[in-house]
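W.,

You were right to be curious about this one. When I first looked at the sequence I had no strong expectations either way, so I just let the prediction run and decided to look at it fresh. Below is the sequence, 233 residues in total, followed by the output.
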Amino acid sequence: MKYKKILLKLSGEALGSEAGSIKPEFADFIIAEIKEALDAGVKIAVVLGGGNIYRGNRWQEDGINEETAHWIGMLAITINCFAFADLIKKAGVPCETFSALGTIGSMPGYDIEKGKQALEEGKVVLLSGGTGKPFVTSDSGAAIRAHELGLDAIFKATKVDGVYDSDPVKNPKAKKFKDLLYMDALKERLKVMDSTALSLSMENNIPTVVFSLNEPGNIKRILMGETIGTRIG
């Protein structure tokens, strides 16, 4: 395995249905992908987005305070984590969830050492609540947790098959990057992760692989070293 300990970042849009809940067919698919990697001995932490329920950047259109909107977004992530944890446990996959917002119901507050211990025990570690602070995205939370937990890479699953120099949906001539430096992503303002997440990952020397989940087996192929999507490092 090229990567033995990873953080899997899943967007809320990929998770969610029109009703704001998690799509059952996607849950079954991603849980099978995670289980395949676990069975191969890979340690996995997961950060979910909350965009299927609420996005923190909606504050202006909703007419509310920006900070308030970000707190709502963090609670949306927490809702997704409660639901996903239940589904993954029902599938027979060991899982432990931690919240950056402190203890919420049966979900304990985030603790670095307990997170590391759960990973070593072969559990999927779900990391809820982003960073626990407003004004940053869940990508920043992923970058921070990857460093704290000593993970080898961030696997960011998106709707497209990598990073492009422009929107491939709007521009059929958009160029896809196979490899990309963090500094170039920052300079070009490529909208793959927020600038804080890119800077943190660059400073801590943690590569990010951006790929599409449309094809089954992509996670394991990347783990084995196959070139899929875009590697940022």
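Here's what jumped out at me. Residues 66-90 form the longest helix (25 residues). And, maybe more interesting for your project: Residues 5-232 form a domain with the Carbamate kinase fold (CATH 3.40.1160.10).

Coffee later to discuss?

I.
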